[in-house]
Amino acid sequence: MPELVFFSGTMDCGKSTLALQIEHNRSARGLQGMIFTRDDRAGEGKLSSRLGLVTDAVEAAEGFDFYAYIVDRMSKGGRCDYVIADEAQFLAPGQIDQLARVVDDLELDVFAFGITTDFRSKLFPGSQRLVELADRVEVLQVEALCWCGARATHNARTVGGRMVIEGAQVVVGDVNAGDEVGYEVLCRRHHRRLMTAATARAAVLSPDVLPVAHDEA
Ligand SMILES: Nc1ncnc2c1ncn2[C@@H]1O[C@H](COP(=O)(O)OP(=O)(O)O)[C@@H](O)[C@H]1O
Ligand SMILES: Cc1cn([C@H]2C[C@H](O)[C@@H](COP(=O)(O)O)O2)c(=O)[nH]c1=O
Question: Which spans are transmembrane here (predicted)?
């Protein structure tokens, strides 16, 4: 039975790498997929992994209709054996419904990849719809780690190096990039305490917590 599968995890846990591996393994066996993405860091119409691999993809912008696009391509003789959709958190709920229809009516496997929650730990609407509709939700096995060594389960946004909890839901960016707006993955405890690696380092270096011997004079 064809399936709608949602591969989810934090940022930087290997979702795009897995998407590229699935694409590689299937195309190596003569299958032909359609690859979609939205707002990848590498630019429009690209699906990229931090391991350096990148492939062309169809940019599924706002208003893009997956079902109509795939039906149109197939009716013109195009082949489609499976569908990959990366950065699926950015898709509108209606677009996720279209992907479910691709599974049910066109009988194609659809593999969607995305982060579940934003920097405020709130569900992205596209991810919420995927959780509601997917046949399976797969949490990636390669765990991203918080600076404390615990499993990272949350995405933090930093602006000018400081963790923020207000702002637009969508701001394309990266971890460890040194940009004005950046991201860092954290465990829940440290996300709740707004404690990034930099904040933790600063706390350790603070004279308030260092066991410094003060002059008695
Ligand atoms: N220099 C590196 N050497 C080995 N693995 C790396 C390197 N850089 C990134 N990775 C791996 O790639 C993962 C990120 O892959 P990517 O597919 O870009 O993540 P996602 O799409 O989930 O944000 C990291 O968690 C790490 O496992
Ligand atoms: C947490 C969070 C992330 N984003 C953006 C930042 C990146 O461009 C993508 C995630 O890509 P990845 O391949 O999973 O690293 O999402 C955002 O717009 N808003 C957020 O709250």
Answer: none
